[in-house]
# Entry
Amino acid sequence: MTEAAGLSPGDLPDDLTAAEAGMWQAFRNGSVYDLSSGDALVDDPHGAHPWGPERTVRARIVCWLLLDGPPALAGRVSSLKLVGVQVVDALDLAGGTVVPYVELRGCRFEREVLLPEARFTTVRLVDCAVPRLEAARVQTEGDLHLPRCRFRHGIRLTDAQIGTDLLLNQAIVHRDRSGRAIAGDGLSVGQDLQAEMLEADGELSLRGATVGVSLSLRGARLRNPCARLALNAPQLSVERTLYMTPAGVTHVGSPLLSGMTPVEGIRVQRFECEGGMRLDDGRFGDALDFERARFTLTDEQELSLRRVQTPELRFLGERPARGRVVLSGARIVNLMDRADSWPGPGRLHMGGFCYENLVPRGPFPLAERLDWVAAATAEYNPEPYERLAAVLRAGGEDEDAREVLLAKQRRRRESLPLALKLWGYVQDGTVAYGYRPGRAAVWMAVLWAAGSVAFAHAGHPPVKRAEHPAWDPALFALDLLLPVIDLGQVDAWQLSGGWQWLAAAMILLGWVLATTVAAGATRLLHRN
# Structure
C-alpha cells in the first residue's frame, strides 16, 4: 500500500491527521504512542466521557501500518503500541498477515475488530472497549491477550490457533445475537488458557477445544440462566488441570497470579455458574477441580460430566439447590469430595461411573456414603453399590464393603414381588443375606437349646423296640436342624400330636438356615 500510494519509505501520507501522523512515526520508531490525558475518569475507555479528534485515528490507517507499513527507523523494530487511542470504523484485518508486534492499552474501538483467518506474531489488547471481536481461524505464533477488555456483542474464536497463551482475565463479555458470549469451538491453545475472574453474560462455548497446559476459570462468573447451558464444552481436552476454583483479589482490584494462595485480608471470589454446564467426553490430564464452586441451576439444567476421564475429580463445591449432576460413564482414579457437595435423591446420576479411590475432604461416614449411592439410584441399580464396595475392599475396609453389599440387597428387596420380598426379610433377619454369617450360628444355638429343652418332655416310643439308640433330646433336636447330616435319631423314635408339628418346624427352620448360609457362601466365593 505504501508503494502503491507513491510514497517513499520515509514519507508521510498527505491525508493523515495530527493524531495519525504521530502514530505513524511511533510505529516506525517502535515506541509507545500515548494519547491519554492523565485524568483517570476521562481516560476510562469504558466510560461515557467523549474523546475528541485529537486522540482519534481511522481504522484504515491502523490496517495500513500493520499490513504494509513503512520500514522501521535505523536500529529500531517497528511495532504498534497505542495507549488511550480511539479507533473509528471497523478494524478489518481479515485474511492478512501481520508481522509487527501489536499492543493496545486503554483504547476504544468504535466498531467491531475483524481478524478472521489473519496471522499474527503476538496481539495484546488490554483494558480496551470493543463492540465485538470476530477472530474465527485466527493464528498467532505467540500470545493473544485480552485482559480487562469489554465486548458488548461477544467474541468469536472458532477454530482459532493460539501459539502460546490466551488470556481473558477480568474480561467482561456480553452475548451476541445467537446468545453466545464466547464462541471458541475447535479452539487450540498451545499453553495456558487463563480466564480468571471472567464475566460472561451468555454461553461460553468450547466444544472440541484443546489446551496444551491448564485452563483456569478461577473466580469466573458465567451467566446464562434462561438458556440450557452457561458452559458448553463437550470433548474439551486439557493437558493438565481445569480450575473452577476461587481467585484472590488484591486491594487494587487485580487478581493474584494463578495458583497463589490468598493472604489474610484479600478478597476471595469463587467460581460461579448460573446455568447448565456440559463437559461430556472431556479429557483432563491432571485434575478437574471444583473447589468451592457455586452452581445455580433450574430443574431442567444439569452439571454434566458424562464419560469424563481424569486422574482426579475434586468435587468440593457447594451443593446445587436444584438441577442434576450427571457422572454417567465417567472414569476417575481419585474422587475427592465432601458429603455436603452432592445433590439429593433423584438429582444425581452415576450409571457406569468408575472410580478407584475415595479421598473425602472432611467427615464422610459410611451411612452418608450409602445415602450418596441411594441418591443416584432412583430405581434399583446394583452397579453403584458394587463399585463402592470394590473401592472400599481395595482400601482394606472389608467390613464397610460388606455393609455396602448388604445395603444393595436391601435396596433390591424393595423392588421384588411380595413372596420374594418376604423371603428376603427372612434372609436378612437370619444371616443378613450371608454378609453376617455369625448370625447363623447364633440362630442354630438358640433353636438347638430350645429344641433340646422341649423334646426332653416329649413322649418318644421307639420305631423298633428291639433296635434303637439311647434317647438323647439334644441329639434328636440337632438331627432335626441339620438337613444333610444323619445322626440316627429322627428315624429311631416316633412322635405324636403337637410334637410332630414341632419336629416339622425344626426341620423347616434348619433348611431355611442352611439355604441362606449357602446363598451367602456363594456370594462370598463369587466376590473373592
